[in-house]
Amino acid sequence: VSDGDDDACVGAGGGDVAGQGGQQKVVLAFDFGHRGLSYSQASSEFDLGEVSGVVRAYLYTVTHREALIVTPALLKKFATGNGLATKEDVLHAVKTIYGHDFEGRDDVADAFVLARISRAHASPKILTRRCELEVLRTLATPAKSRPKPKTAKSL
Known about the structure:
Strand content: 5-15%
Helix content: 40-55%
Distance between the termini: 36 Å
Oligomer: single chain
Shape: globular
Structural class: alpha+beta
């Protein structure tokens, strides 16, 4: 799900489509991911935090599960293998690796990758790429015990 804004996208994975009579419905029994916010944008940090908190509280109320908080760098790494990838790189990876062309809609591609991450979190057996496994390992490690990422200045 994406609202067309880079800073607000939620992906969900692991749902199934079930037929009932002549109708189909999506069974929402899955993990979900919420992309971490990027404060480099001109948006207010308070507003972004408030929206994030409301979304997370609602999803917890509905599913009784904590959201996976996926930073933009982890999302990029899962899709492309490179946490410093550009939006175009993510779009290209989604098209070539997963077979979906979102015609330049990077917000939709982000939501798609979040859904893939959530699905992989619920069913890690589906993973085939090393970068996907590394992202899941990182998400499974509590943030406080993760090593600080190297910056361009420290290299």
